[in-house]
Amino acid sequence: MPPMTDWRDTGLPFMKMHGLGNDFVVIDSRARDVQVTPELAIAVADRHMGVGFDQLAVIGPSKDGDAHLVFYNADGSTAGACGNATRCIARFLMEETGQDSLSLTTERGTLYAKDAGDGLTSVNMGLPQLLWDEIPLAEEMDTLELPIEGMPTATGMGNPHCTFFVENAEAIPLEQFGPRYEHHPLYPQRTNVQVASVIGPDHLRMRVWERGVGVTMASGSSSCATAVAAARRGLTGRKVQIDLDGGTLWIDWREDGVWMTGATMHVFDGIFTPAFLAAL
User: Fold this and answer.
1) Cα–Cα distance list, 275 to 7, 51, 61, 189, 268 (Å)
2) Pairing of strands 203-210, 214-216
3) Is the pTM of the predicted complex or chain greater than 0.85?
């Protein structure tokens, strides 16, 4: 593979994508060895002096799938899973190869994606993690109702989640509410925080605070975790519609995993200049 200095000297191509406003910078590292550092991720995430993203995703080669994905948060930390980014990249790879299904390896494991028709893309985000030490929590407890005010539900989807079911998700001041629970002592790896309301049969309204990012317009793994939590608590069935700030996802908790379906958008392509990269 070309040495790392090649892309620093010549510029680094990237793609900007989003799934319902949950936005991503995507770097294709299959043909060149791009070593993403926390410093690079933080610089790119700056919406004034970089490009801006909720997550940065790197596409690499995979021995066991069609590609391998690695995800970074806006604060430079890594994320084990990112459902909407996975769907966006799956759509890109299916259009590139002409395939209507593929497999993607991640820290979460192998995820399977398929064309759902009408421009929609589905990804199986795997089986939910329901035991305290899988999520993980700091100590053994029932994950259905945590000993926290509001009795939220804990779920793992390759990353930890804390879901509060409330009367009106719109009324929660998420900018203050989210960080209070992201750093709760029960979550040693921090957590994503969701507030959700039941607005109809198998129909939820959800808003999300992502760990290491903040308020986002949508979150795929959060939507999966919320659907699982709602089904476990008897609020919905296992197949639900979730309305987020940026649009709608359809979640189906099946025997083989949690399937997520929705729209994606490849917005533009660009190149990080050598001057930008040299300033890091």
Assistant:
1) 12, 15, 28, 35, 21
2) antiparallel
3) yes
The DSSP code sequence of 141-188 is: --SSS-SSTT--EEEESSSEEEEEE-S-GGGS-HHHHHHHHHT-TT-T
Tokens of 172: 């929660």
Query: What percent of the chain has a predicted confidence (pLDDT) above 70?
Result: 98
Of 150, 210, 206, the residue nearest 178 (C-alpha):
210
Interval 127-183: pLDDT, tens = 999 999 999 999 999 999 999 999 999 999 999 999 999 999 999 999 999 999 999
pLDDT (mean) for 7-27: 94
**DSSP 8-state assignment for residue 229:** H
Which of 225, 235, 231 minimizes the C-alpha distance to 260?
225
Alpha helices in the chain (DSSP H): 4-10, 38-45, 83-97, 174-182, 220-232, 274-278
Residue 1's pLDDT band (cuts 50, 70, 90): very low
Confidence label for 93 from pLDDT (cuts 50, 70 and 90): very high
Q: Report d(CA 211, CA 190) in Å as an integer.
A: 7
Buried b (16+ CB within 10 A) or exposed e, 224-251: bbbbbbbbbeeebebebbbbbbbbebbb
Domains and CATH numbers, the chain: 4-125+264-278 (3.10.310.10), 153-255 (3.10.310.10)
Q: How many CA atoms lie within 13 A of 120 on its CB side?
A: 14
Q: 248: closest CA among 269, 264, 229?
A: 264
Q: Tell me the residue type at 23.
A: D
224: tokens are 């999966």
Q: How far apart are CA 66 and CA 198, in angstroms?
A: 38
